[in-house]
Each structure stands twice: as C-alpha cells, then as structure tokens.
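ok trying again, last paste got cut off:
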Amino acid sequence: MLEEVNFLVETAEEAMEKALDHLNKELGKITTGKATPAIVRDLLVNYYGTPTPMNQVANISTSDARSLVIQPWEKSMLAPIERSIFEANLGVTPMNDGEVVRLSFPPLTEERRRDLVKKSKALGEDAKVSSRSSRREAMEGIKKAVKDGFSEDEGKKREETVQQLTDKHIKKIDELLDAKEKEIMTV
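nice, full thing came through this time. structure:
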C-alpha cells in the first residue's frame, strides 16, 4: 500500500515537471523581436515523405539580432523548408536565395507585445491547470488508499507533500511567466 501511495506522489511530480518543460518549450517559441533558432527548430519539414524536425535537415543560425539563416544540407530541401515556415504562420516571410532561407523579424509594436504577453499567460495557465489536475489525481488516489486501510496520518503527510509539490511548480511557472513578460515588454 505504501509503494502505491508513493508511486502516486512520484507520478504527480513527473506530470508537473512535464507541464513545466512543455511551458518552457512553448515560451521559447514566442518571439520577442529577437531571432532565435528555437523559433523554427522543431518545425516539421517534409523530408522525402517523412515529417522531420527542421534542425535535422538544416543548419539554423542567427546572422544578427533580427534575422535567422537556415542552410539546408541538401539544396532540394529549400522549398519544403519554405513551405513549413509558411504553414507555421510565424508572421515572417521566408526569403530563398537558392542557397539559404532567410527570415527577417520586424520590430514588435506595443500592441503586438501585449498580445504576446497574453499568449504567454494563457500558456502558463494551461501549465497550472495541468499541475493542479495532477495534484487532484494524486489526492484522490491517496484518499482511496486511506479508505482501503492505508494509515490516515501517512495519507495526510502524502497529501501535504503533493500540495507542496504543486505550490513549488506553480511558483516556477509564475517565475517563468514574469521573466518572459519582462523579455517581451523590453524594447
């Protein structure tokens, strides 16, 4: 019985960590007027009929603060790379010079910055909901174990542990969001 309850706590913690990791990746994709390879790294490109991440078919680098250069390892990949960028709807038009694909990011307007902050907060709220959902599942499992004969005191301790984990992850999510908001709003 103790192993099952500990497993519930560990499972909840793993789910909360995954929510945090996912949020981190999604926030990395939100552009702040600065070009970073993370924006296009995970875009899927049709590589001979197989959807393949961009960083596996091309070298992605920044030439300056506002532009990315994507150099495919095969010239035949230029068109599929352009297509995947168009389909991703990044708000940038790729320019193909026959050798590389260039992306130039325009400076952000105040209104666009506010929209990006809203988007990042929505992603943060999704991560919080996911963490709370993991907490709820663990709490229900612990209560069920207590009904089935698990020590009530131990059950309370495990519930406190799950609550502390949840609080810790919610705090990390808030810190990530605050940092991203500062990054977005800095001109």
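cool. The first strand starts at residue 44 and ends at 47. The domain at 2-29+109-185 is CATH 1.10.132.20 (Topoisomerase I; Chain A, domain 4).
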